[in-house]
Amino acid sequence: MIWCDGLALGSPTNMGLLSWKMKRFWDEAMAPHWMKVDGRIACAFSSSGGWGGGTELACQSLLTVLINFGFLVFGVTDYAGKLTTAHYGAVTAREPRDEGTQAACRLLGKRLAEWVAVFCDGRKDQHPLTKADVRLPPG
Amino acid sequence: MIWCDGLALGSPTNMGLLSWKMKRFWDEAMAPHWMKVDGRIACAFSSSGGWGGGTELACQSLLTVLINFGFLVFGVTDYAGKLTTAHYGAVTAREPRDEGTQAACRLLGKRLAEWVAVFCDGRKDQHPLTKADVRLPPG
Amino acid sequence: MIWCDGLALGSPTNMGLLSWKMKRFWDEAMAPHWMKVDGRIACAFSSSGGWGGGTELACQSLLTVLINFGFLVFGVTDYAGKLTTAHYGAVTAREPRDEGTQAACRLLGKRLAEWVAVFCDGRKDQHPLTKADVRLPPG
Amino acid sequence: MIWCDGLALGSPTNMGLLSWKMKRFWDEAMAPHWMKVDGRIACAFSSSGGWGGGTELACQSLLTVLINFGFLVFGVTDYAGKLTTAHYGAVTAREPRDEGTQAACRLLGKRLAEWVAVFCDGRKDQHPLTKADVRLPPG
Predict the structure, then answer these.
(1) Interface of C with A (CB under 8 A)
(2) Pairing relation of β-strands C84-85 and D79-81?
(3) What is the distance between the terminal CA atoms of chain C, rounded to a whole angstrom?
(4) Neighbours, chain A (3 or more CB pairs < 8 A)
(5) C29: which DSSP letter?
(6) Which of A23, A115, A118, D43 is 20 to 30 A from C39 (CA-CA)?
(7) Chain D, nearest residue to B23 by Cα
């Protein structure tokens, strides 16, 4: 966390939020670094026991913590497949076995790499709006 | 809204929140009734273009509006199927065609009827903790 | 938590959410009671280091946990003073010393008692819409 | 919105969320630009009728819309005064007349300018972690 430019932060969804262990990490281990790690670029991912089980809310809670630490957080506009996106983080029910979920995880990671390249390394050719890669719309 | 005891409020997920038309309904049509409809029991449901597309956040925004109006809001603990629940409202991608989603919608509606029966009509026999109906745990 | 009808749940605001200790309580101590405590009535309160410091988001996170456990959650429509309300829970910066904050805490507690009286004990005379108590509008 | 590098997005707090008019702007006017404006840097601000009235939740809803559009969103770690910060956006009750609120608004705007300078214009000297400006801790 001290030297990274970008971060993908994940947690199991527990009671609709990040786990207490992940929360403790930020409340305790990271507290001394608060106001010293501003300006990283970050996104979130989470898995719950079922669809409708709170993964998006868990991602929202992860983003809240990251914003608190001064991070710039983002999601992905594009779709990863016909019925899958990661607008507010990559989410799934149980293990991320199906193709759509895995594509969403890869897309989120790719976007993270792109934003770090564009914003931290000055590689404007990596901007998703200008590079040639296909970006899937809904449906 | 004036005479109901319970309410299931739904909206398409637009940009991760309730639609502007639904918001306008509460901001304008319902504003004169604010502080006059406290104490109804309510829940939320929403559909987006894909999984990970913001349905849980849209339900959260609907619950926020309902809480603002003094409603008591709830979700469902039980699972509706192997991989489907409605912990913070019933959610789906696109039309609610698959069995799990439809079961989640029915379960949320049933729970709404139960809470209204228990809390508004004094029918304690309808409490989900005491009636005989099967309640599915995760998985 | 096992026998209560109503609950006011509070936590310090840590990184914009409930504290890890409070989260652990629900993730661990309360987990065996999940699906066994549905239908309680609950609200939230929180304090942070400063205004704009995340108290409302911390209350939202507490309500998310409560909804996960099947609780019916609420806020207060009325104002507690000229510039203070508790729409989504009672909030303050630092210790709740000033009059407005204390009035908001009392109002939230009163509303909790009223909803429990109305919904759990069948005392419809305690409904805030019908009893004679003054309810402050905004401003 | 088409050519900006950074954006501070504000709305009155209405029912705990952005106003329906602001929502309509994104749902309708901006919809054709979705997937075409990714990668801007943005933050939020809001005012409600009273403290505890939902400003933080309204900022959260603004950030949700911005994330949906592919923006990178942030808050401010530093304090703007003894009891005022803008961790998740700048918030106030009523008009932003008092000194703390105005300082928080200025601090958020300054941070927006800094992130745009650092990330879009390659001016690493503007990074808040390295420039000489005083940054207030809590209290």
Answers:
(1) 14-21, 23-24, 26-28, 54, 57, 61, 64-65, 67-69
(2) unpaired
(3) 37
(4) B, C, D
(5) I
(6) A23
(7) D20
Chain A residues in contact with C67 (beta carbon < 8 A): 16
What are the residue ranges of helices labelled H in A46-98? Answer: 55-68
d(CA D45, CA D47): 7
Half-sphere exposure for B61 (CA within 13 Å, toward CB): 37
A139 has a pLDDT exceeding 90 = no
pLDDT tens sequence across B51-71 = 999 999 999 999 999 999 999
Size of interface A-D (CB pairs under 8 A): 85
CA nearest D33: which of D71, D63, D64, D59? D71
Task: Annotate chain B with three-state secondary structure.
Answer: CCCCCEEEEEEECECCECCHHHHHHHHHHCHHHCCCCCCCEEEEEEEECCECCCHHHHHHHHHHHHHHCCCEECCCCCEEECCEECECEEEEECCCCCHHHHHHHHHHHHHHHHHHHHHHCCCHHHCCCCCCCCCECCC
Nearest to A26 among C15, C21, C24 (CB): C15
pLDDT at site D130: 96
> What would the pLDDT profile of B67-126 be if each residue is shown by its tens digit?
999 999 999 999 999 999 999 999 999 999 999 999 999 999 999 999 999 999 999 999
Size of interface A-C (CB pairs under 8 A): 67
For testing the chain A interface, which of D26, D72, D126, D134 should be mutated: the one with the most A CBs within 10 Å? D72
pLDDT at B131: 95
| DSSP reduced 3-state for C25 | helix
Smallest CA–CA distance, residue A91 to chain C, in Å, is: 18
Chain D residues whose beta carbon lies within 8 Å of the beta carbon of residue C49 = 79, 83, 85, 138-139
Please indicate whether, in this complex, the C-beta atoms of C119 and B122 are within 8 angstroms of each other.
no
* A57 CB-near residues (< 8 Å, 6+ apart): A13, A16, A17, B56, B57, B60, B88, C64
Per-10-residue mean pLDDT, chain D, length 139: 96 98 98 98 97 98 98 98 96 94 98 98 97 94
Q: Please tell me which of the candidates D78, D120, D127 has its beta carbon nearest to residue A39.
A: D127
> With an 8 Å Cβ cutoff, are A23 and C19 in contact?
yes
